[in-house]
# Entry
Amino acid sequence: MTYKRKYTPNNIHNYPPEIQEEYFKTHPRIDTSIRSKSVIFTKLLALILFIGVIYLCAKLAGISNFKEGFLFGFVFMVWLGIFDTFFVDWVLFANLPIFRLEGTEHMDKAYHQKWFHLKGALFPGLIFAVLAGLIIGALFLR
# Structure
């Protein structure tokens, strides 16, 4: 089976540190810290996109006040985080070759790090869920 790599170094900040270190042994190092412009831009863009989609879903669901908007947005983001962690990260990311970065294909154990992904879902994941909930709730203030 042939495939094209889906992930590039632009997304390497989402990979466990061991995979990043192995990748950077043979590729140019880029800033993967939480304060780097590319990481901040990526996270902010994703948050804006999710808030827009969740807000539309909340409108369709008949949400009409801050409390309902906050709860809808928060629960939606938490559910998204659960799906991302337990299915996308633990099942797909860990097992599909398309997610392997060049030069790290042999690192099965590193790709199967459940705790790394769970930590990301808890922090900053829950912070993003609260933030999204607050923004969506605020959009329903009258």
Remarks:
- Helices lie at 17-24, 37-60, 66-95, 108-111, 114-122, 125-139.
- The mean pLDDT is 93.
- The chain is about 65% helix and 0% strand.
